[in-house]
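Lab notebook, bench 4. The sequencing result for the construct came back, and we need a structural model before the next group meeting so we can plan mutations. Quick request posted to the team channel:

Model the 3D structure of this chain.
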Amino acid sequence: MVCRSSSPTGPFSDQTGDNCLTGNGGTLVLGSHGSNVYAPGGQGVLYDLDMGRSVIYYHYVNPNIGYDYWQF
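Done. Here's the predicted structure in token form:
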């Protein structure tokens, strides 16, 4: 979940304008989706010179494989 502000000290609001400091706000950027992408996170952004645009990358758990670190 993310929130934005024009100031580093707030106020912080989500995409719909809800206050994020009340516990009700936040815009989902990346969530579980499909049957194989569970708990995505650890994301980053890079610029792909071949594609000529920014790309987001992230890791996730594939429940069809397993949840332990050694299962990949």
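The chain has a mean pLDDT of 88.
Will bring this to the meeting.
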